[in-house]
Amino acid sequence: MPRVNEKVSYWMLVLPALAIMVCFYILPVLGIWEIAFTEPETGVGNFVKMAGSNAVKTSFVITFRVAAITTVGCLILGYIVAYAISNFATRLTPLMVALVILPFWVSVLIRSFSWIVLLGRSGLVNDALMHAELIERPLRLMHNELGVLIAMIHVMLPFAVLPMLTNMRGISGVYVQAARSLGASEWTSFRQVYFPQTMPGVLSGALLVFVLSLGFFVTPALLGGGRVLMISEYITYQIQEFLNWGLGSALSVVLLVATALVLLIAARFVNLRATLLERK
Fold this sequence. Notes:
78% of the residues lie in helices and 0% in strands. By secondary structure, it is mainly alpha-helical. The protein folds into two domains: 1-38; 45-277, MetI-like (MetI-like fold). Residues 60-266 form the ABC transmembrane type-1 domain.
C-alpha cells in the first residue's frame, strides 16, 4: 500500500508539468510540422523548395559557423574564468559566481543593445581608438559576423562557465598534489591529471552553448543588421514579411531535426547523462 501511495504522489507531481509541456510545447511543435507539410498545398513542396534555395543553404552554413565559433570562444574564456574561480578566488568565490550569474538578471535585448552602443561607428570603442589616434576612420565592428560573434560570446559565456565551474569544484586537489610530489611539473600536472577530469564540464558547456546558439535570434538580428542572416532570422522573415508559413515552418522543422541530430551525435561519443548531470 505505501508503494501505491508513492506512485500516486509521483504522478500527482509529474502530471501538471507534463500537461503544461504537452499543451504549450508538444502540440505547437506538431502544429508546425502539420503546416510544413500542408501549406500552401499538401506534400513536401516546401522542403523541395528549401533544398533548392542557395539562400537557405547559406543561412544554414552561417548558423552552424557562428554557433561553432561561439562555442569555441565561450569554452576558452569560460574555462579560464571557471579555473580562476575554482582554484584562486577562494574568498571571492561567492562574488565571482554572482558576477557570472548577473547577466541572467538582465534582458538579452538590453545586453545586445549595449553592444550596439559599444561597437557602433560612433560607439565607445571607435571613439576611444580615434581619440588615441590608433585609427583614422571608424572600424566596421557591427552589421557583420565579427559583431555578432562578440555579442554572442558575451551572451552565451555564462552557459559555458557554470557547467565547467560545477565540474571543477568537484575535483579533489589531492590528485594534482600527488602528481607534483612525484616530480611532475605544474603544466604536466594540469595537462595529464587536472584537465582530463574537467572534460565532462567542458563537453556539457560546449553542448549547451552550441545548441542554444543554433536557434538564437535577438543578438544576431540586432548586431548582424540583416547581413548575417542566421536561420532563426530567416524563418522570421519568411513568416512575418512574406507570410510564407509553409516554408517558415519547414525551416523550423529542419532546424529542430538538426538540433536533435547534434544531440544524437554527441550521445554517440559522450555519455550525455553523465555529462549533463555532472559528477556529484
